[in-house]
């Protein structure tokens, strides 16, 4: 792979990673706010925040793998 193309891809994936990590932080804040609302067993916002956080964690791990693979060459 061309060195410039590799650097461009790494930059793009690192930017994507940063956005995903920022989104995960925002969801965790929402989860905390939802937890303050009371009974968690009936709290849809809390449940949704947990699911969203897990989705972001999976996506983050996938992007990290892509970055590692690119760095290996």
* Overall pLDDT confidence: 93
Fraction of residues in helices?
Answer: over 70%
Distance between the termini: 8 Å
Structural class: mainly alpha
Number of domains: 1
Strand percentage lies at: under 5%
Low-confidence stretches: none
Specify the number of helices. Answer: 2
Give me the Rg, rounded.
17 Å
Q: Major sheet: size, sense and barrel closure?
A: none
Order of helices and strands: HH
* Rough outline: rod-shaped
Kindly state the number of beta strands.
Answer: 0
Furnish the topology, listing elements before pairings.
Blueprint: H1 3-35, H2 44-72
Helix pairs in contact: 1-2
Task: Describe this structure as you would to a colleague.
The protein has 73 residues and is mostly helical. It has one domain. It is 85% helix and 0% strand. Helix 1 (3-35) runs antiparallel to helix 2. It starts with a helix and ends with a helix.
């Amino acid at each position: 792979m061309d060195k410039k193309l590799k650097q461009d891809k790494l930059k793009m994936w690192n930017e994507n990673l940063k956005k995903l990590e920022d989104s995960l932080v925002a969801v965790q804040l929402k989860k905390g706010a939802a937890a303050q609302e009371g009974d968690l067993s009936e709290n849809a916002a809390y449940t949704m925040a947990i699911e969203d956080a897990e989705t972001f964690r999976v996506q983050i791990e996938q992007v990290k793998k892509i970055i590692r693979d690119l760095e290996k060459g």
